Amino acid sequence: MAMTLGQLAEKIGARLEGSADRMVHGCAPVKTAGPGEVAFVANLKYARFLETTRAAAVIVDEQMPSPGADVAKLICTDPYFAFRNAQVALHGFRAPPPPMDAPPGTEALVSASASVHPAARIGAGSQIHPHAVVERDATIGTNCVLYPGSYVGESTIVGDDCVLFPGAVVYERCVLGHRVTLHGNCVVGHDGFGYATHGGRHHKIPQAGRVVLEDDVELGAGCAIERAALGETRIGAGTKLADLVSIGHGTTIGKHCLLVSLVGISGSVEVGNYVVLGGQVGVTGHLTIGDGVQAAGRSAIVSDIEPGRKVGGVPAIDLEMFKRNAIAGAELYDLLRRVRKLEKDLEHLRNE
After folding, report:
1. What is the pTM of this model?
2. Phi-psi region of 231 (alpha: psi -120 to 50; beta: other; left: phi over 0)
3. What is the longest distance spanned by two Cα atoms in the chain?
4. Is 348 annotated as catalytic?
5. Is residue 331 scored above 90 in pLDDT?
6. Is the sign of the CA dihedral 58, 60, 63, 64 positive or negative?
7. Taking burial as the number of CB atoms within 10 A of a residue's CB, which of 162, 194, 292, 303 is the most buried?
8. Which tens digits make up the pLDDT trace of 16-43?
9. Is residue 242 within 8 Å of residue 219, measured between CB atoms?
10. Taking a C-beta distance cutoff of 8 angstroms, is the pair 245, 227 a contact?
11. Sequence ranges of the domains in the chain
């Protein structure tokens, strides 16, 4: 959607320095943006590109250096969030296509090749695409989209404005709040990894619980959320998971957490609110991670972490200590050579 810089500044709450009448039609990175596009710089690391960018305007804060003479400035306190809002204004969100087998000129929202049980309840405006399955007594809210090959199990509840991308699976009796997004091949509510070893064999424990995803949860492609053996596995409102994240049975994730790709959390873990776990972080079962904890990528959390701590390493320790250890570790070979030389010198002195 094209608009003037003046209109865009009003939409994103920025102060404009430059021509208000200049037209823009999209957003782009500062290095590649063209004359009709808007870029942003929120990190001084990229400030050098302000001198050479061809963008019509850049979104920056008060401290950022000025761009070239022909580039307008959209000044705000949070450039990254303002750029997000500019993308919404200029590009909007992905609009789902109608079911491909809907007859031309009709507003059919449920594909003829979808399998929807007669006892299922489908809210107004929801789209069910080819080969999606909605089982007995399932409830789909209003304005949801179930892409081809998605599956909603028996007695599952899906709230309003949810999107299940192709291959997303929600097992029976699970609950999805409003505005939940499951990207391709997510699995929600499969059996937890629970076995009792007896007589030399692993005996499966029935997984009688469920999974609850609260409002505004988004799961990246290939995530797996196990149902609880008893009770529930719960992911709090606003929490976002990147691709290939695994959450064990009976674990509770708090509100507005960020879990980067390949995070693995074992069962019965209590994770607080606003926790950030970097890529490939592993968490042992039956632990408590407090509010606001941040863990560096590839950390191994094997004990409780108090609220607000920043940790890293295997096992996870205070982040600053982990950094110092990593720097020291990079010098271990030289240290070894020096120690061996000192040992030889000492042996030489002893033999004199």
Report:
1. 0.90
2. left
3. 102
4. no
5. no
6. negative
7. 162
8. 999 999 999 999 999 999 999 999 999 9
9. no
10. no
11. 3-90, 115-323
Distance separating alpha carbons of residues 115 and 135, to the nearest angstrom: 8
- Cα angle 172, 152, 270 (rounded to 5 degrees) comes to 55
User: How far is it, in rounded angstroms, from Cα 161 to Cα 182?
Assistant: 12
Of 113, 191, 106, 118, residue with least CA distance to 146: 113
Tokens matching residue 263: 């995070």
Residues sharing a CB contact under 8 Å with residue 54, sequence separation 6 or more, in sequence order: 33, 34, 35
For 232-248, what is each residue's pLDDT tens digit?
Answer: 999 999 999 999 999 99
Give 15's contacts (C-beta < 8 A, 6+ positions apart). Answer: 9, 74, 75, 76
Beta strands 37-40 and 300-301: pairing type?
unpaired
User: What 3 state SS string does the chain have?
Assistant: CCEEHHHHHHHHCCEEECCCCCEECEECCCCCCCCCEEEECCCHHHHHHHHCCCCCEEEECCCCCCCCCCCEEEECCCHHHHHHHHHHHHCCCCCCCCCCCCCCCCCCCECCCCEECCCCEECCCCEECCCCEECCCCEECCCCEECCCCEECCCCEECCCCEECCCCEECCCCEECCCCEECCCCEEEECCCCEEEECCEEEECCCCCEEEECCCCEECCCCEEECCCCCEEEECCCCEECCCCEECCCCEECCCCEECCCCEECCCCEECCCCEECCCCEECCCCEECCCCEECCCCEECCCECCCCEEECCCCEEHHHHHHHHHHHHCHHHHHHHHHHHHHHHHHHHCC
CA-wise closest residue to 44 among 65, 59, 28: 65
Query: What is the number of alpha carbons within 13 Å of residue 8 lying toward its C-beta?
Result: 40
With beta carbons less than 8 A apart as the criterion, state whether 225 and 207 touch. Answer: no
| Candidates 129, 249, 286, 348; catalytic one | 249
CATH class of residue range 115-323? mainly beta
Neighbours of 58 (CB within 10 A): 26
Residue 98 confidence (pLDDT): 87
**CATH class belonging to 3-90:** alpha beta
Distances (CA, A) of 263 to 48, 123, 318, 321: 34, 34, 19, 22
